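#lab-general

N.A. 3:47 PM
ok so I finally got the sequence cleaned up, no stray characters, all 102 residues accounted for. can someone with queue access submit it? mine expired

B.Y. 3:52 PM
send it over

N.A. 3:53 PM
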Amino acid sequence: MRSLDSLAASDFEPQDSIWLKLDVQGYERSVLDGAERLLGSVKAIEVEMSLQPLYEGQILYLPMIEFLLDRGYTLASVAPGFQDERSGRVLQFDGVFLREQA
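B.Y. 4:20 PM
back already:
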């Protein structure tokens, strides 16, 4: 595996405007940890967030929101992902975060 920072170094310029969509089955925080430099060019992040643990070691929705807020992003929209068929409870939703402009 390679980090997004190592991949992006040759593929993106600092002035590029990037929309980053993560669909990595519980590895969202690991992917973002490997994208600290790239995040400077990322204008929007779309990420799946779970309300309860679905994958071993995953970060849940509140810590994910705090993580992205600390990096200058604001939660702009949410969309239901999937729910428990028996209880009807939402288990996961998609969040779109936008970088606050200085």
